[in-house]
Design goal:
The complex is a heterodimer of chains A (113) and B (111). Chain A is mostly beta strands and 113 residues long. Chain A has strands at residues 4-7, 10-13, 19-25, 31-37, 43-51, 54-57, 64-66, 76-78, 87-94, 103-104, 108-112. In chain A, 36% of the residues are buried. Chain B has no helices and eleven strands. Chain B is globular. Classes of the chains: A mainly beta (113), B mainly beta (111).
């Protein structure tokens, strides 16, 4: 099992550009989430999904879109990048409601200039 | 507004010391509280707590939840330099899989 994979590891964007951060898991997990982590802060939930076809907003959803067409993939789209979106992005997955242990991907470091 | 507060923000101890990290929360319809350890990269899972008063233990680490007073503590005994990390607390509230994280406690264990 590869676990949770994220691509790219690093990305630099110019203000106004769009891009998609990829997240995939091969553990057949129902639950997937996207977080951002800024210096001195914990993780803040952007969007999450409790299964294919179902997504919901977290604490800081503005400027981001998600979709969950398959169990394995949960891409995060930045519609029009802004410097405030400079952050480290983590994707996480967990199996079901009784097993809350979340497995995190290695993260994507995004810089918006 | 749902929130999770961790204290202290940072801590410096020497090897062999015992430390207690705190996590207090205000979350609608509490479901679970999780502790993570974050070193250089992604957080790694330590404990999940759902019931008051039941201690979870793994080696030198242990944790307990008080749902009446809305807090949890993470204890690390006989600390080692490898325990140096940021420890994160996360609480699951109103919706399944919707977690609120604290800002973390940065622990530095000196030789």
């Amino acid at each position: 099992n590869a676990g949770v994979t994220q691509t790219p590891k690093f990305q630099v964007l110019k203000t106004g550009q769009s891009m998609t951060l990829q997240c995939a898991q091969d553990m057949n997990h129902e639950y997937m989430s996207w977080y951002r982590q800024d210096p001195g802060m914990g993780l803040r939930l952007i969007h999450y999904s409790v299964g294919a076809g179902i997504t919901d907003q977290g604490e800081v959803p503005n400027g981001y879109n998600v979709s969950r067409s398959t169990t394995e993939d949960f891409p995060l789209r930045l519609l029009s990048a802004a410097p405030s979106q400079t952050s480290v992005y983590f994707c996480a997955s967990s199996y079901d409601r009784q097993s809350y242990e979340q497995y995190f991907g290695p993260g994507t470091r995004l810089t918006v200039t | 507004e749902d929130k999770v507060v961790q204290s202290p923000l940072s801590l410096v101890v020497h090897e062999g010391d015992t430390v207690t990290l705190n996590c207090s929360y205000e979350v609608t319809n509490f479901r679970s509280l999780l502790w993570y350890k974050q070193e250089k990269k992604a957080p790694t899972f330590l404990f999940m707590l759902t019931s008051s008063g039941i201690e979870k233990k793994s080696g030198r680490l242990s944790s307990i939840l008080d749902k009446k007073e809305l807090f949890s503590i993470l204890n690390i005994t006989a600390t080692q330099t490898g325990d140096s990390a940021v420890y994160l607390c996360a609480v699951e509230g109103n919706n399944f899989n919707k977690f609120y994280f604290g800002s973390g406690t940065k622990l530095n264990v000196k030789p």
